[in-house]
Amino acid sequence: MKPSRWLGEDGMRSLVLIGSGWHPPLFRAEARALLGPIETLHPRIVFVTQSDEVLSRIRGASLMDEALHSTSRLWGHGERLTAEELATHISQWADDFLPGGTFSVRARRIGTGVDGISRRHVETEAGALIASDSHKVDLESPQNEVIVVLAGPEESSGHWDDAQSGQLVIWGLRDRVSGGKYNGTSPTDRPFFKPVTLDPRLARLMVSLSRSGSEPTAVVDPFCGTGGIAIEASMLGFDVLASDLDPVMSSGTLTNLEWADGSGEFRVETHPAGSIHELWGTKEGCSFVFDPPYGRNAWTSEDGLEILLGALSSALSMGQGGTVCTMLPTSTDALDGPISEGLRVFGREWGELKQSILETGWGVSLCIPVRVHKSLSRLVVVCHPAD
């Protein structure tokens, strides 16, 4: 098998993003929101053409494990590939693309991996073939890291996925400019903490999903709680407008934002979500990112639904050109396949709830479920102004 090598046109390099195994569909949705069109090579591997803008935007990604540039690949087509053959391909690639200096080879498995090839064997064989006077092996702090991904059919993440995956080997240089895996800060480290605090990874993801198209002029959270979403937006450099009906929460959000010391400016007020347009005035191109409150019965109850719809109506009144990203309670049935119109979400059938959202002036463009625990999931929903 001859490797297929991607090199971007006009001096632009290829970039391959490796996603988290926690939720591959959301990894790809985040990549599309941040970067536009992508080519899916595997549920957890996507290809884009590298540019300065791409590098800047993926630094804030929540579900990206790592990025590789100057990549090459081998697809599995029934032929059994040996570690020695793979190492030869990698060595030939290194002749053209590995800069001089120290290096290491690190292999990782995704899904079931590639039949008959172990990570350690590839690392040893490829390293030995590449090593020379101009390429010295350094396993501690190499100047260049060659990453080899052995990808096979994806093992279940607990979230339904329609993307297909066969066996694929891809390798390239770790891109250090784009950053790496997002770890976030533990909510318990913040000066103001409540058990209801949103997972920082989900908060960052929601901000990412709201960034499709042009960057937001501000990130608005009318249910700010302890400030999880506001913190992530500020850390990314966005201005933040946060509010909550509970003065304890709004005060806590302000404390947490000051502690986080992000680069974005912020304002925090105590105010009802249904009239944020009166609080903040007209502001075009905002992202409205929030986790609304819901009743004890979660997905079976409409408790809190009117508050949500009121917040959506008020958000549209602030100005055109914005994006909404929110999460709505639903049952674990959502994890079994494509979202059906009859799925119960926030106490209503999804088809009916989408119509209610549309009546506020927003059209649903994305909905992907996330497991919360054994009896509850939440639907990550992105909306844009309806035509």
Tally the structural domains. Answer: 2
Helix amount, in percent?
A: 25-40%
Which CATH C-level class of the largest domain is it? Answer: Alpha Beta
Structural class: alpha/beta
**Corresponding CATH architecture of the largest domain:** 3-Layer(aba) Sandwich
Order of helices and strands: EEHEEHEHEHEEHEHEHEHEHEEEHEE
Provide the CATH superfamily of the largest domain: Vaccinia Virus protein VP39
The separation of the N and C termini measures 49 Å
Measured by DSSP, the beta-strand proportion falls in 25-35%
Low-confidence segments, given as residue ranges, are: 5-12
According to CATH, what is the topology of the largest domain? Rossmann fold
Compile the SSE list and pairings.
Blueprint (H helix, E strand, L loop, with lengths): L3 E2 L8 E6 L4 H12 L3 E4 L2 E5 L2 H7 L5 E12 L7 H15 L5 E8 L8 H12 L13 E8 L16 E7 L25 H10 L9 E3 L6 H8 L4 E5 L2 H14 L5 E5 L5 H5 L6 E4 L14 H13 L5 E8 L13 E2 L2 E2 H10 L2 E12 L2 E10 L2
Parallel strand pairs: 6-7, 9-10, 9-12, 10-11, 12-13
Antiparallel strand pairs: 1-5, 2-4, 2-5, 3-4, 5-8, 7-8, 13-17, 14-15, 16-17
Q: What would the keywords be for this entry?
A:
single chain; 387 residues; alpha/beta; VC0802-like; Rossmann fold; eight-stranded mixed beta sheet; seven-stranded mixed beta sheet; 17 strands
